[in-house]
């Protein structure tokens, strides 16, 4: 289509052509391709922008009366209005989906907040129950006459209570966002593995022996392994679960 024709359509003008040669030229077609001798082009303008045009053609020359050209223009205006409504509906539908997603996210956040409050209350009660255990284990360790076997047992109990307290602390704040590196500390992996093996000993040694089953735990840690940054209690929990799950999986 010629630039001049596009300019007229963009300006909102309806164009009527009554010459087959001119029609082919306006549409950018070779001579004789278009068989219409009369053509009406009605613009479709949306938000001051030409988005399309409605064409009506007849083989007879001078075939369109002014009322018919106005009718074609009216149809084009109705099509443009329908297009506008379709785009508006699409925008509203997208906004509604965004609103639903936002509401779902807010509801999820509210659920997490409620769970966090409930977890905080539960953790408080469990901490109260663990306090006497920690206290008596500490008192036992201060006794210089305590046999070495019992001292090691008291140390394991105290370490288990500390680990449980840290787990409860995380439980209280699990719904809050915190930097992943907030509790990273240099960690001695060999020492941690030894602690976990001792901590889980009742599960993999004492209880199975009561049923006539013997389980050995063999650890291999690279010697002279340098400390590395980690969250001690989380890694201890992971290793503990690894051993407990392995014992449960044994026949």
Automatic annotation (TrEMBL):
EC number, UniProt record = 2.7.13.3
Please name the top-level EC class of this enzyme.
Answer: transferase
The UniProt entry, under InterPro entries, shows:
GAF, GAF-like_dom_sf, HATPase_C_sf, HisK_dim/P_dom, HisK_dim/P_sf
**All residue ranges annotated as the Signal transduction histidine kinase dimerisation/phosphoacceptor domain in the record:** 114-180
The organism sits in which domain of life? Answer: Bacteria
- Gene3D superfamilies xref list: 1.10.287.130, 3.30.450.40, Histidine kinase-like ATPase, C-terminal domain
Which SMART domains does this one have?
A: HisKA (SM00388)
The record's catalysed reaction(s) read: ATP + protein L-histidine = ADP + protein N-phospho-L-histidine
GO MF, one example: phosphorelay sensor kinase activity
Task: Return the PANTHER family for the record.
Answer: SENSOR HISTIDINE KINASE (PTHR43065), TWO-COMPONENT SENSOR PPRA (PTHR43065:SF42)
Protein name, UniProt field: histidine kinase
């Amino acid at each position: 289509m010629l630039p001049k024709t596009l300019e007229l359509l963009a300006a909102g003008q309806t164009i009527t052509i009554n010459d087959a040669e001119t029609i082919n030229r306006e549409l950018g077609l070779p001579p004789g391709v278009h068989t219409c001798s009369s053509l009406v082009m009605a613009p479709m303008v949306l938000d001051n922008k030409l988005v399309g045009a409605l064409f009506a053609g007849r083989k007879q020359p001078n075939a369109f009366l002014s009322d018919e050209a106005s009718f074609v223009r009216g149809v084009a205006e109705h099509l443009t209005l329908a297009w506008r409504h379709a785009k508006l509906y699409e925008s509203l539908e997208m906004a509604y989906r965004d609103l639903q997603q936002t509401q779902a996210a807010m509801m999820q956040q509210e659920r997490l907040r409620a769970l966090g409050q409930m977890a905080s209350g539960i953790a408080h009660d469990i901490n109260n129950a663990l306090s006497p255990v920690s206290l008596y284990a500490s008192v036992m360790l201060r006794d210089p006459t305590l046999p070495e076997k019992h001292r090691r047992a008291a140390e394991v109990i105290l370490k288990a209570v500390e680990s449980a307290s840290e787990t409860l602390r995380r439980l209280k704040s699990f719904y809050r966002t915190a930097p992943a590196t907030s509790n990273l500390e240099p960690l001695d992996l060999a020492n941690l593995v030894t602690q976990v093996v001792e901590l889980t000993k009742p599960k993999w040694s004492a209880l199975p022996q009561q049923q006539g089953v013997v389980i050995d735990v063999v650890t291999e840690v690279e010697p002279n392994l340098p400390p590395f940054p980690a969250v001690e209690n989380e890694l201890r929990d992971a290793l503990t679960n690894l051993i407990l799950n392995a014992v449960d999986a044994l026949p």
